[in-house]
Write a structure and sequence with these properties.
- It is a single chain.
- It contains nine helices and seven strands, in the order βαβαβαβαβααβαααβ.
- It is of the alpha/beta class and about 260 residues long.
- It has a single domain, classed as NAD(P)-binding Rossmann-like Domain (Rossmann fold).
- A seven-stranded parallel sheet has the order 3-2-1-4-5-6-7, with helices on both faces.
- Strand 2, helix 2 and strand 3 form a beta-alpha-beta unit.
- Helix 4 packs parallel to helix 6.
- The longest helix has 30 residues.
- It is globular.
């Protein structure tokens, strides 16, 4: 069991899927958890139910509104006066962004995706770095995707894959630029994870059975495994892993 009892962790998109699993695992390790959510209050309450009231703070913020993102950071920081770890997880995936869509739809999908998946987390990256440089360091963990390295299977989600590559590169830049200030930055690149978003993606590709048949282990990644990996990285025990991209896909994509 890892001990994060002295750390305050901000997790974005904590109401479901990977973010919810991260919040639970971090809470189990004793962290003070700031759990961000978009509109699903009941989801984030369920995800953090096992965390003591004094050890969690739930904050709503619309990531398509950059002022709301800035407000999220300020409120999270004010809670305990410090943030030790930022888990940049919140993201959206639109399934109507293919090249055959009307140009108005294409532009709408790209604008929304880049706002939520790149600009919003980049704002938090910026704030985290500014804070960490005054606090002798800190940790950033970005949830990217294997799509950032290999492209997307469904071309209608081209904006999603591109956005994940962008925030991936931004995180690695932070790792390289601020290592001497004690800032650690990691990228996690999941494959097919058991989430509602992946289930929706599978439906767009001919069904879950078809997707599963192409996976080396014949199964999807449990979100809890990613939560455990995030919790380990949050300890800062392997500092020289900073800058790494950690693939978690059951050996379905090895590079």
């Amino acid at each position: 069991m890892y001990d994060l009892s002295k750390k305050t962790v901000l997790v974005t998109g904590a109401s479901k899927g990977i973010g919810a699993a991260c919040a639970r695992e971090l809470g189990d390790a004793g962290a003070y958890v700031v759990a961000h959510y978009g509109g699903d209050r009941s989801g984030v309450e369920e995800a953090t139910a096992s965390i003591a009231e004094g050890n969690k703070k739930l904050i709503a913020a619309d990531f398509s509104d950059l002022d709301a993102v800035e407000s999220l950071w300020r409120e999270a920081l004010a809670w305990r006066g410090r943030i030790d770890v930022l888990v940049n997880n919140a993201a959206t995936m639109r399934f109507d962004g293919g090249v055959d869509e009307p140009i108005e739809t294409w532009d709408e999908v790209w604008t929304e995706t880049l706002k939520i998946n790149v600009e919003a987390p980049a704002r938090l990256l910026r704030q985290a770095v500014r804070h960490f440089t005054t606090e002798s360091g800190g940790t950033i963990i970005t949830l990217s995707s294997w799509a950032a390295q290999r492209g997307v299977t469904n071309p209608a989600t081209i904006a999603y894959g591109s956005s994940k590559a962008a925030i991936h590169a931004a995180t690695q830049t932070i790792a390289r630029a601020y290592a001497r200030q004690g800032i650690l930055a990691y990228v996690i690149a999941p494959g097919v994870v058991r989430t509602r978003l992946s289930e929706k993606f599978a439906a767009s590709q001919g069904g879950e059975e078809k997707i599963t048949s192409g996976l080396t282990m014949g199964e999807w990644v449990p979100p809890e495994e990613i939560g455990k990996l995030v919790t380990f990285l949050a300890t800062g025990k392997v500092r020289h892993l900073s800058g790494a991209t950690l693939d978690i896909n059951g050996a379905s994509y090895v590079r």
